[in-house]
Amino acid sequence: MIDKTCVEGDDEKYTILISEEQIMRRVKELAQQISDDYRDKCPILIGVLNGAFIFLSDLIREMDIDCEVDFVKISSYGGGRISTGQIKTKKQFDSHVDGRHVLIVEDIADSGRSIKFLEKMFEGTKPASLKFASLLLKEGNAVVDFKLDYVGFTIPIKFVVGYGLDFDQRYRNLRDIYVLD
Ligand code: IMP
Ligand code: MG
Fold first, then answer.
1. Distance between CA 151 and CA 28 in Å, rounded?
2. pLDDT band at 1 (very low <50, low <70, confident <90, very high)
3. CB under 6 Å to ligand 1: residues?
4. What's the whole-model pTM score?
5. Ligand 1 mean position to 160 CA, how many Å?
């Protein structure tokens, strides 16, 4: 059952953490910052499927520079709420990235393993620059060293859904971000 302030699943309950209004305000700020940083550079924004598809589509529509869009798909969560730590590439990007400015767009960084994995994916390529944006960052949960160039919100170490983020493939279509009680 979904209403404005809470989501009830089979045996779980989520309450609102970040509202649609807060998200859109922050996405606009990030888009402005990215537009300023990449002016006349026509960056390739590579969204990390599935979670980042909504963030990426809102982000690029708030940007006022030319850009290209591509996707990679990786997986680590085997359907649960705990990362398996085993990351696999499910879909590689298609773009020729050599000499291009590449910005990876993630939904959330938790342990940092996915960001590290994505960084490694570009070993052997020669992008003009490689940067990372994540809408959310779970503070203090890193198990590897990683760096984000753009962060939307820092959140507590709790499981969240909505605005692209899922539990077991559900709840991606929620307009706000919810936290598991
Ligand atoms: P990391 O590799 O541990 O940093 O986890 C990053 C990936 O795990 C993200 O791209 C998400 O797909 C997924 N993930 C991490 N935390 C959450 C969460 O709270 N809700 C939904 N997905 C999450
Ligand atoms: Mg993700």
1. 13
2. low
3. 48, 51, 76-77, 83, 106-114, 159-161, 165
4. 0.94
5. 9
